[in-house]
Amino acid sequence: MPVDFALVIPMANEEPDFFPFVAKLKKSITKLKSGKIYLVIDKVSKDRTLDLCYQLSEDDKRFVTIYAPENKNIVDAYMRGYREALQNGHEIIIEMDAGLSHDPDALPMFLRVLNEGNECAFGSRFINGGSICDSTWKRTFLSKIGTISANILLGSRMHDMTSGYQGFHRKMVQKFINHKFCSTGHFYQTELRYLLRKSKFSEIPIHYRAPSPSVSKSSVKNALYCLLVYFGKRLKGSPAIIR
Question: Chain centroid to CA 227: how far?
């Protein structure tokens, strides 16, 4: 029997890669004979992404377009998608990036891992079978140093603490959906992995294509701030955790 699962995908300024991404995604979920895709768009998107998503949802009912102008940051976008998926009763929820950054062909592996008794499945570029392509050395360095720094300062033990391709059983999503995240940017993925480090999880090799050659200074500053906040909590003997 096909597994009931949902995909949460924030979409912003995706017009250039919209059609190749959707084509590959459709191919993957058609093979799986299951899957509902929640596309979350907010005011950050300035091109025709919203219109394209609305048209896609009208043509293919597997795609649900969520316009959320109230979102303040990327974390809000993910949480909005998760809430929609929870409300619609999905047992497994997977988040991924658009623009072919994350390969939809990895979905069967996520589903298999989550159906083998794991509560969480985390995509990893730094284990056997994983990779980063079309990326500058600076961006790759930031990803690797981010993982090393998080593991040293926070005591986590994952091979990749900064990837955004990850999936959860609904019971885990219900535990973090109302958590007040420190991060307002992509450090959210590191924060979430840290919070769930005591759960039963498995890392999955993924192939990541960097969508842009650099990371914004504001994202780096927010990441450093959050890292120090959690390091401070660890020093005080009160490391954060979601069980």
Answer: 19
